[in-house]
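Researcher: First entry.
Model:
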Amino acid sequence: MESIVVLVLLLFSCSTFTSTEAYDPLDPTGNITLKWDVMSWTADGYVAIVTMYNFQQYRHIQEPGWTLGWTWAKKEVIWNMMGSQTTEQGDCSKFKAGTPHCCKKDPTVVDMLPGTPYNQQIANCCKGGVLNSWAQDPSNAVSSFQLSVGSAGTTNKTVKLPRNFTLRAPGPGYTCGPAKIVRPTQFITSDKRRVTQALMTWNITCTYSQFLAQKTPTCCVSLSSFYNDTVSRLSTFIFNSIIIGETCKYTSSPIMNYSQWNLVVQHPNFDNLTQLFSFKYKSLNPYEGLNDTGMLWGVKFYNDFLSSAGAFGNVQSEILFRKDKSTFTFDKGWAFPRRIYFNGDNCVMPPPDAYPWSPNASSNLVFSLLNGVNLNVRNAQEAANEAIKRDAGG
């Protein structure tokens, strides 16, 4: 079988990957949905469970995690919470018989950390605010907490919905719509013989804009090719390297944990993908009839090496494409991707006229594929290391 071999080399360092785009066409329906379920009434309010679903295909919420805020419609207070806490208590001096957890008009809520005492937990809580993407790890794309609200009304008609929801994950970028009352959530008991439901439910939808998150792009991609003269002459396969890197502009920036990294690649030949090594893969098809986008992410064994290696760590993989002679060409950088996202943010690609093209004549030197791989990895690492040292020192 004739194949194209693509090596993906990811060079990571500290800081945040960002983009200038305000709309992501590769995940047009992705969002974070908040579901607020009123579970029971109390003497002066209600007990609710708030659940956050990360329905984005490949965009995580990374450390230090999400921060959720809103403005109460009346003079509500939070008597107590499980699975999360507010960052400030506020002025509770008017309460004589018991002090609420929070009396602020605009509370700010954060997730509890792993290891929180069991009697302060509920299901899907206590992840330090970290949520994985829906396509990569749906079981860890949900976060929940419970709160008891006072001075709030005790019926569906007297309860007022909070307003002005904000979500930082952990920085800016998300815009939340108004709370909307929806059909009460139904729950199935563990024996699956009975269905109960919330007394009242409302939803809030938050969408992401890369332009709001960071106007100045810092994630960059470089592309290179190595042509074996036999390969070029016979047109059987091509070896490419894609390098994704970003350097620290400020040495005080925190070192990011990329143990749950993912890569989204737009390439015209994903219909002909035959084999992938050391990475996981999911086809993304935001538009019917078009299969040109794939999502890649690492397996735990290799990610552990990446996490322990620090700023100079790298992971790599080979992607094998079947060559369709009706569409394949060496010309105009066809073998390279058109767009690359790292952890949900669009990287800056080289301009089209800078893409590596097939040479006019192949070299007289014949390199084995293995030598080409080793040479490319070594040169890429050396170049990236020099860039990182230069920027950190400057």
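Researcher: Second entry.
Model:
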Amino acid sequence: MTIVPSVKLEDLPVVVKFILHNVKAANAVEVISDLRKNLDLSSCVLPLQIVGSQKKLKSQVQTSSSTSQVTTSQNCVKLLFDVIKLAVRFQKDVSEAWIKAIENTTSVSDHKVLDLIVLLLIHSTNTKNRKQAEKVLRSKIRLGCMPEQLMQNAFQDHSMVIRDFFPSILVLAQTFLHAAHPAIVSFGSCMYKQAFAVFDSYCQQEVVSALVTHVCSGNEAELDIALDVLTDLVVVHTSLLMRYATFVKTILDSTQKLNPCQIRKLFYILSTLAFSQRQEGSYIQDKVILRISLQSENCFCLRHA
């Protein structure tokens, strides 16, 4: 345990594996608490910053070297979480102790990216402790211990690791949009946005499909937040969201469930997708123009009824 803070990154998975393999039920919480304090993932992000600066240089040798550093760093972090995943799956004491160690952390500043990733890992890997992991995550969000910035750092700096937990991320995001606490709802919407921004096309399609389902559900609260998420995505990731415009377009079949403000948001989203590349006569453009015309006619009729 004393060498964990200073051990080289490439040796860390072996050291952590040894510690987790030898932990006993009697001291599991104490050992895991010390381990999470000494594991610093921020040092694993440093090579990515080096690459950012190296990209500005024209030296091919330097760029290749920094790229190699990133690959090595990411592989080591992946191996580290593979070790933790095996321990959580097959050692009941480790899974429960890790949840307890995070739960016992009271100071807001003491919470780490590691804590969020481990909770997602447990939720994804250990069915017996899934509810407990979600309960602790909800509690930490309500208390302000898991700010959205921490979550964004986790997704952006360790997307290779978190991608493996996408099914759990999707389930949690969907569940959080039903929550009563605004911080949990906001966290769920941010999970959707981060998953769309950093994951592959399969995950992006699943995110859009889930958001469309929220909008078509008829539930006022989740409908509004889902439209807001789609609005943010169409502003920040227009070209990416355009690939899934056909999914978004299906919301037009459920406009009877939307109020005028929500319809305006929907038309803004669809109009941005339809006209951002100025493809005259596109199918989506025609659908949007036709639906806006019909909606305007309906509003006119209602006003004069």
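Model: Note on the second entry: The chain has two domains: 1-40+73-165, 200-304.
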